[in-house]
Every structure is written in C-alpha cells, then in structure tokens.
Design brief:
14% of the residues lie in helices and 32% in strands. It is an alpha+beta fold. It starts with 11 loop residues before the first strand and ends in a 6-residue tail after the last helix.
Length: 72
C-alpha cells in the first residue's frame, strides 16, 4: 500500500505492550466500552490481556477493574 492512499473503515489490531500490530488496515478502531470510533493516530489506551481498545484512560481503568485485572 502506498502512503498516499487513504485507508478507511475499521482496522483490526493485535494489542501488544506499548505497541500494536496492524492485522488489517483501517482508519480507526472502536472503543470496546463506549463504541466510539478512535482514529489510529489517537489510540493511546488498550488492554493486552483483553485485546480491547479504549477511548479514554477512565474507560480503560474502569474496564480493568470490572474484569478484575486491577484492584477497585
């Protein structure tokens, strides 16, 4: 794919520690809790354990607490 080509639609990612791997190109991912579209260049929060992206740090923390990954 050429850098000048516009990619649209939802990307499929594998979330790693401090990075992610693009499995299928796209312009955004969808927050696992709120359903918000998150542009890839704005993606900052995800769970490696749950393989889910999050729109905000608060959503990320709340989800980790719900799943018992961090104390409440």
């Amino acid at each position: 794919m050429n850098r000048m080509e516009r990619v649209s639609g939802e990307a499929k990612l594998r979330y790693l520690d401090g990075d992610y791997e693009v499995l299928a190109p796209g312009a955004y991912v969808i927050c696992a809790v709120s359903g918000t579209h998150i542009p890839l260049d704005a993606l900052r929060y995800w769970s490696v354990d749950l393989q889910e992206p999050y729109a905000t740090p608060d959503i990320s923390t709340r989800r980790a607490q719900e799943k018992g990954l961090v104390p409440k």
